[in-house]
Amino acid sequence: MRSAFTVSALLLSTAFASASVAQDDAILKVTGHGAEGRPAYRGGGVVEFIDVSLDAQVVHFAPEKGAILPLEVDFNVIEPAPILLTSRMGTEHWQLYQFATESMSAMYTDQKVDLATAGKHTAQATRAWFGRNYGPAPEPGLVGIRGHRYLLIDRPDGTWLDVTDPPAFFARRDMLRKLTFTLADLTKYELAVSDIQSTWQPGGPLRVQVVVHDAQGRTLPVVGLPLVASAGNWQSKFGTEWTPLGEPTGWMRAALPDVVPELVTVSGDVTLQTPDGRQVTKVTADFSRGAGLVSPDRFKIAEQGYELPRDAGGTIRETRAIWVSPSDMETAESVARLVASCKKARLNVIIPDIFVRNAFYAKSDLIPISDRIAEGFDPLQDLIAKAHAAGIEVHPWFCVAYRDGRFRQWFAEKYGRNIDMIDAEGEIISLGADVHRPEYRRFIVDLMVGVARDYEVDGIHLDYIRTMGRCYCAECQKEYAERHAGELAKATDEQWIEWQREAIGEIVERTAAGVRKVRPKAMMSAAVFAGMPGGAAQGQDPADWADRGWIDLVLPMDYQMQTLQVRSNERQFLAAMSDDTKLATGLSLYMRSGGSALSRPAELVREQVELVRRMGIHGYCLFAFTHLSDEQLAILHEEVNTEEARPFFRE
Fold first, then answer.
1. Nearest to residue 214, comparing CAs of 188, 249, 240?
2. Is the confidence at residue 3, as pLDDT, over 50?
3. Pairing outcome for strands 645-646 and 263-274
4. What are the CA-CA distances from residue 403 to residues 601, 607, 626 (Å)?
5. Which residues contact 366 (CB under 8 A, 6 or more apart)?
6. Distance (Å, rounded) from C-alpha 249 to C-alpha 210?
7. Both 150 and 226 in a single domain?
8. Nearest-angstrom CA–CA distance, 184 and 222
9. Euclidean distance between CA atoms 325 and 338, whole angstroms
10. 115: closest CA among 41, 192, 170?
């Protein structure tokens, strides 16, 4: 019998919106988020981004003042609006990657993308400064702009209205490579062509290093230069040498002619943005044949290889999972398509979301099934049957604390407990459930254990296993005072972390114990923030959960567009976890572009899976099936997963 507790399609997570592959990834229809409680901006404005360029290879940098940055953003206003898009504060910043330290910094700039007038325009920046809330400040050396976080929506008078998502344009690799430059103290400097390497064979490679000696005595590489090698009538242009992950090696590379000359001249201009303005300095050097002679092997860009582990029978051991939204398993036909696609991609674990916001997609005595499901159809049971027949495991996915107001009202009526979260200003937090309430912890644990008992699942997956913020409700304040002899409103960040971890840790521990009691071979997994400090603030402690044996598989949600950032994040987990075989990386199949989610380029998916393998991580999980494009499926089938594999966690 159906309950009055129903779900609307509009209440499903926006993360599962269909990919709009037809949208141009350079066009932004400005739509606000309603940041910090402000009204969501809906005042119009459509802009097409054309290019981002930097008129210098070396930029003056003073840590306490920032950098002199001649950055230009070319754009075309399609639909005017009285707003500016800026990158001047908060989460609205460029992402600046430092290649030496492999870290990402928040870079703020003063350009203004003015949407007041239709047509093509250029927004010019003159300086950059750096925050410390979203990464360390950069150091002198090679850096590169590698994307943009949110854009700030400003009024013409400079007061801000809201924030919006940037288009995926800002993640284009061909454009970003042009935005690689050197930070240096240019109050005094010298430039030089410092080194050469070549096989000195006909048609062979030739590369040089150009460096800047700055006022602090540092010698720093410079790339992206218009250098030319010449001898008589022969010329060859140099290009920046890149690693497979898009890192500059610090060398500029060209090719020798078929007849190797006795003397090669290397020359070109270096553009510097100094405290005294723009300077163009010519560098030149002559090299005799045989100078810097090296073998061809020296020109192989270092790339860590890997060999996937195999069992005694020769089958690859690698966890290949995919997250699946409720909309992809609402009918028997959609379940069949899902399983067929996963089989073609040679995936071996399906993680279907069966509890999101207020909607439940299985059968339980604790909560009714969503009314989006046809009478008599059990999507989880159907998926398990079809997936098992195809040799694929099923680990039901629970959004543990991701509850909306409709669910919270239903819970209060059915279980007699208000689980609203209250923020520091006394307002109800729209999405979340107060996990500090024992009644809710008992409910969610019993629900997950019940599914493990009633269905032949292979595992249980915890998502939104976090507090969803800080709750200041009267019950939380009272309980904190009783248990910790202090005021919650005056708690330090460290005390908040401890308080949040108590509630979240209890859910993880009790769920693991209950699931293993009813389904001993079931695996426990958890999706966690890719940035460990952010997760800790909401009660996550994945390394400890794994060490205690509560969690068998930790899945950082590493949905970065920049593969270098994925590497940096995953290294944190490898360092923190005592048993790194319990780590698998969550990778994205989609990319944000304005307010839409587009399927990522298939080549980027391949690149990031290859990175995970080179790092020695024994698996990955793709988010999400909704965004799996034909091109992505083809590359998984034909290049990435050319053989079947069984999950690494299965001995």
1. 188
2. no
3. unpaired
4. 32, 35, 22
5. 443, 446, 447, 450
6. 12
7. no
8. 10
9. 11
10. 41
Is the residue at 261 inside a domain? yes
Same domain, 370 and 277: no
Burial of 471 (0-12, 13-18, 19+ CB in 10 A): buried
pLDDT score for 595: 83
Q: Are residues 581 and 449 both part of a single domain?
A: yes
**Is position 100 within any domain?**
yes
90-122 tens-digit pLDDT: 999 999 999 999 899 999 999 999 999 999 999
Query: Which residue among 136, 167, 184 closes a domain?
Result: 184
CB 12 within 8 A of CB 356: yes
Instruction: Quote the tokens at residue 242.
Output: 């890149």
The answer on 638 and 543 residing in a single domain is: yes
Sorting pLDDT into bands at 50, 70 and 90, what band is 24?
Answer: confident
How far apart, in Å, are the Cα atoms of 462 and each of 355, 400, 444, 578? 10, 6, 11, 21
CB 357 within 8 A of CB 386: no
Query: Are 152 and 92 in contact, with CB atoms under 8 Å apart?
Result: yes
Question: Which domain CATH number covers 262?
Answer: 2.60.40
Q: Left (φ > 0), alpha (ψ -120 to 50) or beta: where does 314 sit?
A: left
Place of tokens 């504060």: 89
Cβ partners under 8 Å of residue 40, min gap 6 = 31, 32, 33, 34, 162
Residue 489: its pLDDT value, please? 95
Query: Tokens representing 483?
Result: 């248990």
* 439-453 average pLDDT score: 99
* Contact present, 191 and 212 (Cβ < 8 Å): yes
- Token readout for 229 is 């090698």
What is the helix (H) or strand (E) element at residue 575, kind and residue range?
helix 563-576
164 and 207 together in one domain:
no
pLDDT > 90? residue 545:
yes
Mean pLDDT across the stretch 176-191? 98
Q: Which residues pair with 236 in a beta bridge?
A: 229
d(CA 86, CA 148): 11
pLDDT of 505-523, one tens digit each? 999 999 999 999 999 999 9
- Hey, how many other C-beta atoms are within 10 angstroms of the C-beta on 582? 22
| CA–CA distance, 222 with 241 (Å, rounded to integer) | 12
- Amino acid 13: pLDDT: 32
> Per mean pLDDT, which range of 376-390, 492-506, 592-606 is the poorest?
592-606
- Stretch 152-169: mean pLDDT: 97
Is pLDDT at 2 greater than 80 in this prediction?
A: no
| Percent of the chain whose pLDDT exceeds 70 | 96
pLDDT band of residue 297 (cuts 50, 70, 90) is confident
Given 239, 269, 299, which residue is the final one in a domain? 299
Q: How far is CA 527 from the centre of its chain?
A: 13
Return phi, psi of residue 190, to 5°.
Answer: -140, 150
**pLDDT at residue 21 above 50?**
no
Q: Which domain holds residue 212?
A: 190-299
User: What is the domain count for the chain?
Assistant: 3
**Residue indicated by tokens 């960040």:** 493
Residue 445 shares a structural domain with residue 586: yes
Of 528, 480, 525, nearest to 500 by C-alpha is 480
Phi, psi of 256 (to 5 degrees): -75, 160
As beta bridge partners, residue 80 has none
Tell me, what's the pLDDT at 23? 56
Residue 419 lies in a domain: no
- Domain annotation covers residue 487: no
Domain shared by 36 and 171, yes or no: yes
